[in-house]
UniProtKB/TrEMBL annotation:
Domain HIT: 5-120
Biological classification of the source: Bacteria, Bacillati, Actinomycetota, Actinomycetes, Kitasatosporales
Coiled coil: none
Protein name: Histidine triad nucleotide-binding protein
Locus of motif Histidine triad motif: 104-108
InterPro entries for the chain: Histidine_triad_HIT, HIT-like, HIT-like_sf
Pfam families named among the record's database cross-references: HIT
Length: 120
């Protein structure tokens, strides 16, 4: 998509701090982190939100969710028996009323601090 910020990150036209990349996904640090770990996982293919992605391509949604787990492991926030993990949250803001500002689906992976529930 010509005017999509995250498509530009995929294309290397906008710089980002990439932490993981696969054939189908990119994971990069949020420019305005809300937690010690705040990484965005996106499919390389453009879809506007989580529901659209899940409907159009369940496999690609699974790729994004698997990568969210890989990022958590890399950042040492994953819950692993006997490990140092603290737990983390995966969030898809969907629609402007829920805070979505970039309309290329992205999973926020947040962790490294206590996370309140329910969220604000
Ligand atoms: P949303 O509000 O749509 O759920 O999340 C969009 C996220 O993208 C926000 O957390 C925002 O800080 C992040 N963001 C916006 N522009 C950029 C950018 O140019 N680079 C990076 N790395 N993150 C961005
Ligand atoms: Zn896009």
């Amino acid at each position: 998509m010509a005017d999509c910020l995250f498509c530009k990150i995929v294309a290397g036209e906008v710089p980002a701090t990439v932490v993981r990349e696969t054939d189908t996904t990119v994971a990069f640090r949020d420019i305005n982190p809300q937690a010690p770990t705040h990484v965005l996982v996106i499919p390389k293919e453009h879809h506007q939100d989580a529901a659209s992605l899940a409907a159009a391509s369940p496999q690609l949604m699974a790729d994004v969710l698997r990568e969210a787990g890989e990022v958590a492991a890399l950042e040492k926030i994953a819950v692993r028996e006997g490990g140092p993990g603290t737990g983390y949250r995966v969030v898809f803001n969907t629609g402007t009323g829920a805070g979505q500002t970039v309309f290329h689906v992205h999973a926020h992976v947040l962790g490294g601090r206590g996370l309140e529930w329910p969220p604000g």
